[in-house]
Amino acid sequence: MIFDTPGIFKTDQLIHNLTYDEIKKVNGQSALAPRTFLLKTGQCLFVGGLAKIELLQPALLASSKAPRTAYLTVFASREINIHATDSVRADEVYAKHAGNPGTNILNIPSGGTERMESFPKLSRQKFRIEGLDWDTCAKDIVMSGIGWVSVTTGPDSPATVGVSVPNGTGLTIRDSLLPEAVRKRGKRVKSRGKRQQFKG
Hints:
It holds the Pfam family YqeH-like_C. This is NOA1/YqeH-like C-terminal domain-containing protein. With 200 residues, this protein is mainly beta. The chain has one domain. The chain has three helices and 14 strands. The longest helix is centred in the first third of the chain and has 8 residues. The protein starts with 19 loop residues before the first helix and ends with a strand. The relative contact order is 0.23.
């Protein structure tokens, strides 16, 4: 059963840290459309400057069945840019591009150095995901006020995903709402580097 509860105030909602113009972009003007990325352990996605999603190296033996890759399907406003990079470069990328109107890579929040000084720091939570199969999203990690990311890995191949959001709050995990979304990833988009995005 689903209850519609408009107007409910939640202290962990991202909206309380955004300007009016930023809220309009985060809410978007159209339905959410999935954007799927194939990541290896040690790589991450930035959802604007609002969240960082990492495929972490599991603390397991090399002979284990821990996955080398996973599909991450992001459901968020199309007005939020998504940027993939190696985790070792993540802090550098965030410091350089978050809120920087000159690059527009991590485009929300916006407003330059002064804006970022007042924006909460990203803090991480870790989630262990048990895979189903490569055509079925296993779990959704919900980022309050932003959207969610669906994680897909193979059977018997658990993945550890780190999600960093402002103050580390507003994160929950659930069974996938749209488990077949990863099947609609389309063709690979040619890109530089090792990350692969798929047309949604």
